Amino acid sequence: MTEPVTMEPDEISLAEDHAALERVVLSSGPTARVLPSAQDLEHARALLIKSLPPKGLGFAQTKDHLLKVVVPGLNFASISPNYYGFVTGGVTPAAWFADNVVSVYDQNVQVHIPDHSVATDVEHRALKLLLDLFQLDEKVWAHTTVTSGATASNVLGLACGREFVLCAAAERNGVDCKSVGEYGIVEVLRASGLKGLQVLSTLPHSSLGKAAGILGIGRANVKSICANQNPLRFDLERLEMELALPGMASIVAISCGEVNTGRFATGGIEEFQKIRALCDKYNAWLHVDGAFGIFGRILSHVSDSKEFDSIRKGCEGLELADSITADGHKLLNVPYDCGIFFSRYAKTAQDVFRNPNAAYLATSAAADTVISPNSIGIENSRRFRALPVYATLIAYGRNGYRAMLEKQIRLARRIATWIFDQPEYAVLPRVSSKDELLENTFMVVLFSANNDDLNAELVNKINSTSQIYVSGTSWDGRPACRIAISNYKVDVERDFARVMGVLQNLVK
Ligand SMILES: *Cc1c(COP(=O)(O)O)cnc(C)c1O
Fold first, then answer.
1. Distance CA 346, CA 90 (A)
2. How far is the CA of 203 from the centre of ligand 1 (A)?
3. What pLDDT, in 10s, does the model give residues 160-187?
């Protein structure tokens, strides 16, 4: 007989460890480095426990292993204000505290059971607060849910769009509304007399293709309908031709915040209205991928200054969409994982996500406005992701989020205009004036070095300083660097100096 291992945590050292972790998370300054050193990584990899121990290590030794072996091998992507890779976001103190509560109480946000827990009500409230933050009317957005990220939200968007447009096409073809969720895509396509389903977008995020792959639409049927003179915008004539293709049903997906450039696919309400009108004319679903771009709507309340005009215009008209993706773990600065999804049609959602024959999962209360999350999203059991959302929104409010985003945009603009003046570097997409650059820069700066040799190595050279971290991408056929500013800890002057220092050193 092996001895049972005690699972009782030592409460005093737990509190000490917690305080130590809290200091790491909440310290607001730059970290010594943004990535672990090669030695730390090697050390961590070498000491990972390679086989399941028959007799467990016990709690104390496991804790020691995590703190001494695993933690030194982790990066500071979320903790450091100077990590500019992907769009990573940080974790606000309120969100961090809430996430700890989530772990301790481990609520399962599956079915709304009012007698058991307030968790589903909190999630419902958190989503309403988000609608308010984004200035979307809560009466219109009947299907709201918390997902694992923008990828999952895009899956929801295309799934709801697929359900809606194919069901409507079947009805137009004289067949009673046939649910794709119930009968499958093949049978509903046949009933609707259609050949296929396509997604029309401009430079969509890769996750949109992934969603199309998952849903039987096909990655090959995601088409970029980019204007010749500006690939970020729709060519509206071609969009109409695609929508009018006989035998095809369409979902139009607007890149509200293109991931390489941070720029927007639409430039104001009129353009959005035109796209909406085309969708109505050709029975297409209108989805918006606003993973980070939707946060531009927080800026709408800014006084009469023109500073953020172009960003506000880029997010105008989202209220006309059928479904919207947003990310929580990016600009909202809540911990991974957290995405957000809004759609107008609760019935469509239930037709897609219903659990068949699971009476035991039904919601107990009848006249109840909280829909059980398991009937409108992918998961059944899942984490109480909404608590950090709720906490951070009430802690900092509309003004707190506006101030955070303004700092992020100002830092991006500071860096972009500095790079614009450097003969060794170029900001992308190319602009003719600094004013144009200032106006169009959101919280992403895309740039390259003019010298091809330096440019080929630029991302590696920048990242090997470990002072800042940037993502590599390509633009117009050349390698390019991308700085995405998404952490609430931003300090414009301090962080500008750091970025400038790194870039100057490389061309000395
Ligand atoms: C990041 C991002 C996604 C994917 O988001 P995840 O949170 O990584 O799933 C989708 N669309 C856009 C525009 C993004 O920026």
1. 32
2. 13
3. 999 999 999 999 999 987 899 999 999 9
